[in-house]
Amino acid sequence: MRLPLIVATFFLASVFPANAQQAACGGKWSTFLEGVAKDAVAQGREPQVAQRFVRGLRQDQKVLAADRRQGVFQLDFTSFARRLISANRMQRGQSLSREWDGVFDRIEAQYGVPRGVLLAFWAFETDYGAFQGDYNTANALATLAHDCRRPELFRPQLLAAIQLYEMGDFDPATTTGAWAGEIGMVQMLPRDIIENGVDGDGDGHVLLKTSAPDALMSGGKMLQHLGWRAGEPWLQEVQVPAEMDWSKSGLRTQLRPAQWQAMGVRPRSGAWQADLPANLILPQGHKGPAFIAYPNFNVYFEWNQSFTYVLTAAYFATRLSGAPVFDPGNPDPGLSGDQMKALQRKLAARGHDVGAIDGILGAGTRAAVQAEQERLGLPADAWPTTTLLNRL
After folding, report:
1. What distance in Å separates the CA atoms of residue 370 and residue 75, rounded to the nearest whole number?
2. Residue ranges of the Transglycosylase SLT domain (predicted)?
3. Which pLDDT value is given to residue 143?
4. What is the 3 state secondary structure string of 139-198?
5. Selection from 132, 112, 137 nearest residue 121 by Cα
6. Torsion angle of the four alpha carbons 134, 138, 140, 146, in this order, in degrees rounded to the nearest 10
7. How far is C-alpha 245 from the chain's CA centre?
8. Which of 379, 343, 373 is closest to 358 using CA atoms?
9. Nearest-angstrom CA–CA distance, 310 and 373
10. Which of 64, 152, 229, 383 is the most buried (most CB within 10 A)?
11. d(Cα 341, Cα 71) in Å, to the nearest integer?
12. What is each CA distance from 141 to 2, 11, 210, 358, 388, in whole angstroms?
């Protein structure tokens, strides 16, 4: 099952100022394509190359439908993790770890990224390369760049695809991938391929669709580029006491393990993995699963913006590295999609920035929930319940 991956591209604003981004989207399709070709030439592409590339581009309404449809992220962490992490995926990951043992050793030596981290992304993004997406990549990028929801992300990626085309590494007629324009076994956008693509098998090309060494080495380099710190952990399961200051949980408060331990937090097995600033993550409140997230955990958000996806990918990476199955606990029932939307509307009315009213418990909604729980004297663990909804 392909999950939407949106790689963080913080540098895009410097490429296209905000007003230019908005002016470049929407409008007549042919005019939009002319503008793309002009921008490509301004970036150094040959005029005939840019014209050949844009000449065959078509809008894909299925791409827009996929962009609006992300209901899988309405699942809670336990349900989401159980859906994505099957016994077959565990066994296949262990088998591939042995098959590409030398490649994973090279990645850890050069980029500091453990094999479990890359195996988890490989599994979730394309089921270890089995399904890499069947959307025409050029059309997908053009459609999303023309759409005015996120042109600042997709227009530069479309221009990067033209650069790959000029380099001979991209065929706009035949290259396929995910609906959001990612390509290959670990799903990378064109600009990321240009900046972080690695010829892992030594054949002189970076082929992320057909070469596991290329895909894995490129993924490792990109994670290093995004800030991965060699030799440090990313996630550790813990147990929490029956009572503590739950407002300390979440992504806004970092404490050292000794400070967490003083509040009653304990590793579920073994010892603390590092003496680093860390967050206490309670994806389903203080009665559910609990994790300590070390600084490397934040790099996951540079790869994908979904809290549930990020936590599940990080957890699966620990499982592939030998950690036990997490304790689901006994969390209070969560909200339905409609209830979550009603909650988001109430939170927005109180001045909280929850983003889109989409029924998804993302980072913005979690922060708002925690603030309102604290105000109302409820356990401030960022897990929305019907009690909170009714109190608001």
Report:
1. 19
2. 31-317
3. 97
4. HHHHHHHHCCCCHHHHHHHHHHHHHHHHHCCCCCCCCEECCCCCECCCCECHHHHHHHCC
5. 132
6. -170
7. 29
8. 343
9. 24
10. 383
11. 13
12. 17, 18, 21, 23, 41
Distance of alpha carbon 358 from alpha carbon 369, whole angstroms: 15
pLDDT exceeds 60 at position 7:
no
Cα–Cα distance, 18 to 319 (Å, whole number): 42
Residue type, 101: D
Share of residues in the chain with pLDDT > 90 (%): 84
User: Mean pLDDT over all residues of the chain?
Assistant: 91
Which amino acid is present at 251?
L
β-pair partners for 279: 293
Helix (H, G, I), strand (E, B) or coil at 309: helix
pLDDT > 90? residue 141? yes
Distance of CA 294 to the CA centre of its chain: 17
Q: Which residues pair with 237 in a beta bridge?
A: 291
Q: How many residues does the chain have?
A: 392
Mean pLDDT value of segment 360-366: 89
Question: Strands, DSSP E only, in the chain?
Answer: 135-136, 176-177, 235-239, 266-267, 279-281, 291-293
